[in-house]
Amino acid sequence: MRRREFITVVGGAVTWPFAVRAQQSAMPVIGYLSTRSPEDTTHLAAAFRAGLAQNGYVEGQNVSIEYRWALGQYNRLPELAAELVHHPVTILASTGGEPAAFAATGATSTIPIVYLIGGDPVKEGLAASFNRPGGNATGVTLLTNFLEPKRFSVLRDLVPGASMIGVLLNPKFPAAEPALRDVEAAAKTVGVHVQPFRASNDDEIDAAFHAITQARLPALAITADPFFDTRRQKLVALAATYAIPTIYQFREYAEVGGLISYGIDNANAYRQTGVYTGQVLKGAKPADLPIMQETKFLCVINMKTAKALGIKISDNLLSLADEVIE
To answer: 145-263+298-325 architecture in CATH?
Structure first.
């Protein structure tokens, strides 16, 4: 069973005087900027297009989409955003977290932007408020950056006797260090120590898992990070090779053999991003479209992986699960 719910209050229809109004006879162009890769987001890009279709926009028929992929390399995003702005595009849709949103908003203050991020857009300076974002940008927040303590709690339920857990984070991701502090605070309240490991490329991921194994840690939490999402097959494979019980942020990890995930329904969030993009193309003003916020989350357990690791899933954890993959 999957549970999902978005809270959104759409303001009154307000026209937006940008290129789509001036060029009604021309096909609008969406600049799709992603921190991730086309291979690992095939289903998410499809969900985005499904959201567009809810507003009557079909790629190749009455809307064109220019894709730019950073492949998990955040330093590429400003250049990719600038390419789209100079293309030019009618609207920018940035996906895959704050790095893409910052690149988009840094590239233009006039082209409308719809972003998909994991944190608080007001604290990050991307919006004046949730109800009235202001400026030329609005979007969807997953709030997944704030779920690290909850993921720690779920992981501790998996290994209740653990006195120390490992945390893998990417030092190049802005939300990484705050996420680590959140986990450390949650762990301190129950007398558990946290050992951080940092990786921002494939070699460092390999080295981190080797170090985790050398430290004989009983469990690992992989923090929310678009770069890690582009490497989910590798991360899941390493966790299996070294037999480390690991928790991840999205269902996609559990689908490919990850032990357990706790986070939002990512495909639905991309669909909602597409819906907002379509509404802006129809004339809604981003400044008046409230930030959409996820309120329901999914816990997914891969029982095949649990059996391979010799882990017994508690009744409490099974009751929390929205989906069990046999």
So the answer is: 3-Layer(aba) Sandwich (3.40)
